[in-house]
Amino acid sequence: MNNSKQYNVAVVGVTGAVGQRIIEMLEQIDFPVKQLIPLASKRSVGKTVDFKGESIQIKEALAEQFDDVDIAFFSAGGSVSKQLAPEAVKRGAVVIDNTSAYRMDDEVPLVVPEVNEQDILNHKGIIANPNCSTIQMVAALEPIRQKYGMKRIIVSTYQSVSGSGNQAMEELTHQSQAMLNNEEVFAEVLPVKSEKKHFPIAFNALPQIDVFDENHFTLEEMKMINETKKIMHDYELQVSATCVRLPFYYSHAESVYVEIEDDHISIDQFQGALKEAPGVVLQDDIHNQVYPTPLTAEGKTDVFVGRVRKDLDVSNGFHLWIVSDNLLKGAAWNSVQIAQSYIKLAK
Amino acid sequence: MNNSKQYNVAVVGVTGAVGQRIIEMLEQIDFPVKQLIPLASKRSVGKTVDFKGESIQIKEALAEQFDDVDIAFFSAGGSVSKQLAPEAVKRGAVVIDNTSAYRMDDEVPLVVPEVNEQDILNHKGIIANPNCSTIQMVAALEPIRQKYGMKRIIVSTYQSVSGSGNQAMEELTHQSQAMLNNEEVFAEVLPVKSEKKHFPIAFNALPQIDVFDENHFTLEEMKMINETKKIMHDYELQVSATCVRLPFYYSHAESVYVEIEDDHISIDQFQGALKEAPGVVLQDDIHNQVYPTPLTAEGKTDVFVGRVRKDLDVSNGFHLWIVSDNLLKGAAWNSVQIAQSYIKLAK
Fold this sequence. Notes:
The structure is a homodimer of 347-residue chains.
Chain A: E1 7-12, H1 17-28, E2 33-40, E3 48-51, E4 54-57, E5 59-60, E6 71-74, H2 78-90, E7 94-97, H3 113-116, E8 126-128, H4 132-148, E9 152-158, H5 166-180, H6 219-232, E10 238-242, E11 252-259, H7 267-275, E12 280-282, H8 294-297, E13 303-310, E14 317-324, H9 328-346
Parallel strand pairs in A: 1-2, 1-6, 2-5, 6-7, 7-8, 9-10, 12-13
Antiparallel strand pairs in A: 3-4, 9-11, 11-14, 13-14
Helix pairs in contact in A: 1-9, 4-6, 4-9
Binding site for substrate (chains A, B): 159, 245
Subunit structure (chains A, B): Homodimer.
GO molecular function (chains A, B): aspartate-semialdehyde dehydrogenase activity; NAD binding; NADP binding; protein dimerization activity
């Protein structure tokens, strides 16, 4: 990294769950920030964010705020990104977009630095951060794919409410308290705020994340399917997903079945590839009940893998359990990593 | 059913979560009970159970209590079944065992009445009730298998704490309250009471149900694999399972991938087979957000199926979401159904 250069960094959607964590990550790794420009909607103007001991005023996210910005993180929803990301790019900023607005755009690289960092070189101003559930899965599976090839992925997810933002987290708290007190439970946010019906998430499981596609999959499931192929540059790879929202606050977990090319691989070899993988921590010791859980992964930037098993019938089939903090590696940390890679590659 | 005949019915483990519900089910369907004999461990002697407006004293589960028993339900753990079920059989009772003690015994039929009711005819005194997570899966999949053949099942479960009994339910309540109050959280029951380590289940997910086998699968996972083959009488069927405990009280949910023999089946045909299936209710309307959840299945005896999708790559692959109350169809209701089938077939 060019140690001398410093950057003007804008964070759009700074009051949201992801925006807050982008600020924390920038501070934690001492990212070379010359000036931090926290941006949000009009109603947050007047509030402040704390960054490196300074209290910085939040400004309204308007095109002219990007005039002197070098790097702009966007996590204020797809419509804001669609409207303002091109304005930021026009003014010379590189945009790292954490929404789904540009992910499947052929002109936009979709990046998990451990997997396809070099794709950043093709950017035309916007670099997209993948969906949270996709990031942790490809980070864990790419080292396997590189070493042993990969034909097929079938994933069932166990996703926390923070993936739906701060309101969903508050809803889980209110509903949990109400149910424990035998009071009436109200649902207004989950499974999808804009949908007609809402269901309780407290002490429940909702097999709907995002709205439904005509093919009966949800858009969350289609994101995992399409983004995985794009990030891995492998459109022959068979991917299928079932996405489920669950009553915990942070981290997504995934039960993953993969079929690799090589059909003579042992559990030890499979685990070995994971042990060497950047950003991946193997937590897999059945004799000592060692495996990752949402609570143990919370607040950490790594992707944790456990429960590695060889399928009992299919010689090239493996099962594994992948857990990571969806707001960190699944969002804020991966975005900041993209910024680091961008700086490194721009040297 | 022989309407005139009435039966002396013992329930062993009557104070447990399943035992309580066996009593409720017997009452609810007006099972032909001449005398109810509620049995439990010594420390419950003196307590009573309510049955059809009567308050009946609980007696200690000892061999001599089975002297006049016709049907004995066992749900007091494997060791009690191993010790006392043969005593009950010796005294002329037929045992319907809800533990894992005899399930894989070649001499013992393992029965889900909608799937393999006729197996009851081979009993030698003991009929086994399968594991909760197995029952709801085979009830939903057998009609598909009958109609379209079946090659392969890959399941990831979302299992409630009541599968671990009343103590696990209390633990979820205490931990949830503690976490909401920012108090210290204690774990003493889950994932497995007898294991060395215990982890919080509140606002978490534990990828361990029962202890580990040397093949890295848990015994819960192996139950689903082995029991499914035995119930379906199909040892060529490929089955794999990942079992996860989650913070809700009742119902298990399952994300299931199946490969059928026939590769020209539409979603409509697949749903059609489920609509006709006994004990199965299709809740699958994506345009109106209709799908089963643990809370909506709670207290109901049916198996609910939704989220039916055709795999996007594999023409004979389907995904579905199966939910049922683990204490009812997964335990008490299936046991009472076995008793009904036994009476019907004994005519």
